Request: fold
Amino acid sequence: MKLHTLLKALPFAKVREQSLNPEISTIEQDTRKVKQGTLFICIEGSNHDGHRFAKEAEEKGAVAVVARKPIDVSVPVVYVQDTKRAMAILAAAFYQYPSEKLQIIGITGTNGKTSVSHMIEHIFQANGKSSGLIGTLYTKYHSKKHETKNTTPDSITLQQTFAEMVDQNVEVVSMEVSSHALVQGRVWGTEFDVAVFTNLTQDHLDYHGTMEAYRFAKGLLFSQLGNSYSEKKRKFAVLNADDEASDYFKMMTGVHIFTYGIDREADIQATNIRFFNKGTSFTLRTPKGKWEVKIPLLGKFNVYNSLAAISAAFVSGLSMDGIVRSFANFPGVPGRFELVDAGQSFAVVVDYAHTPDSLENVLKTVRSTAKGRVFVVVGCGGDRDRLKRPIMAQIACEYATDPIFTSDNPRSEDPLHILKEMEDGVKGAHYTVIPDRKEAIQWAVSAASKDDIILIAGKGHETYQIIGDQMIDFDDRLVAKEAIQNNL
Ligand SMILES: CC(=O)N[C@H]1[C@@H](OP(=O)(O)OP(=O)(O)OC[C@H]2O[C@@H](n3ccc(=O)[nH]c3=O)[C@H](O)[C@@H]2O)O[C@H](CO)[C@@H](O)[C@@H]1O[C@H](C)C(=O)N[C@@H](C)C(=O)N[C@H](CCC(=O)O)C(=O)O
Ligand SMILES: Nc1ncnc2c1ncn2[C@@H]1O[C@H](COP(=O)(O)OP(=O)(O)OP(=O)(O)O)[C@@H](O)[C@H]1O
Ligand SMILES: N[C@H](CCC[C@H](N)C(=O)O)C(=O)O
Ligand SMILES: [Mg+2]
Reply:
């Protein structure tokens, strides 16, 4: 596409070197990805000012640059007031507005986004629709997985991914939308059809500052749903009736509202919930009648997740019979309540709980099934919300008989300092501190016996540990398996 054709999307931009009209082969915001023919966009981020990389981009083959302030390059420069907004607009235009050609379901909330997005993808697939997934674990379509850097990709990567999905005849996209992405405009230019809210509890206060600002960030997904009731563009906000933040999100959008819940009256409601060893059953009350639902997952929180997924599929037009039937063979999600079985006499569960609320939920579930002791191996990530550390430690001590505090991803922080901040929340309680995560897991495995349960929390599917600026191989599931085998 020629630069001037692309720039029709930015009617008020000022272009230096108007006479040049290079062919644009790709758009990038990161010099590490620039190649011949790139339009490079300078972004002022939290670590770097992208304007400082403009020269390097030119040397690597950029044929034009989008900037907010003067830069010293000889290729055409497109001056705009807000390069991040320009990036989203240009990305959507360059890839020919792919989100308009897809049915897009966005999921936001503190916990459950990855779980719900997998359920939605599974339901559509099982009901004969070609569905794709974008989230923490990967981008996936046609059973092929592609690595992702962020839960929600930057606007260029996102629009490019949508375009690939359109090319590959994907019909429905189930995607996680993080609060960071909403604040940073990564989903500007994405036309969502359905926005789903799971829940709002404490996390990411390092980034958002207050719970109000965090809630506002999540609310942007609902305010960005558009303002049309036309049948072709009918939009839905799927809200959790049992979470009071839903009342706030209702005020942020004019679209149709569909609610789900357990405790409060809602459009669809789970009643008569029964928990078994390997799954959960409930009666689903809907506007179209009642259904018996069986999910191969444990915990009340997974009833909420399944209600969110059922609602999204239902408002998108799938039949309730088809939706309910598809849950029977839902395969679960890597690192979410994943059992490690190496022939041991006790249960080992690896789970991605890394917030106070998720840890409490998963520990309650573990405790309700445990006949013996409950071990929890848990740490808190470095360079992330510090306020959640003492609370997570308190929860570990409240619900587990044997809490073991260890390291998660310390990143640039001193692991012992993070542990100290956890311990500040549990003065006088009974717990063990083993800073090395592998040793902590080995210790729990050697101390557990028949009927006990070990919960290894916080890292779930992660296959690495970030210590300083090093990324070392580390997979809780493999470390646990090896420890069990060495102990048999
Ligand atoms: C704090 C934060 O959110 N940072 C995100 C942000 O980066 P940034 O704008 O601050 O980037 P920066 O490093 O200051 O660089 C500024 C500009 O210079 C460019 N640059 C930089 C270096 C270089 O050599 N060349 C170059 O061109 C960069 O590409 C960028 O355009 O924008 C980037 C592109 O979208 C993101 O990848 C990056 O996520 C970082 C890696 C991150 O860790 N983010 C986490 C906190 C996050 O976003 N998490 C949520 C999930 C949270 C949850 O729900 O649990 C997520 O969606 O992943
Ligand atoms: N609805 C829920 N309410 C509370 N906790 C939940 C819920 N669903 C899942 N969890 C817990 O939270 C953990 C993370 O779940 P999941 O990965 O689905 O959330 P997420 O919102 O995608 O997280 P992230 O923001 O890190 O991507 C799970 O391992 C489980 O312990
Ligand atoms: N998306 C979350 C993941 C946290 C996972 C946990 N293992 C940690 O490193 O804190 C974040 O980046 O805050
Ligand atoms: Mg996720």
Remarks:
- The first strand starts at residue 14 and ends at 16.
- DSSP finds 16 helices and 24 strands in the chain.
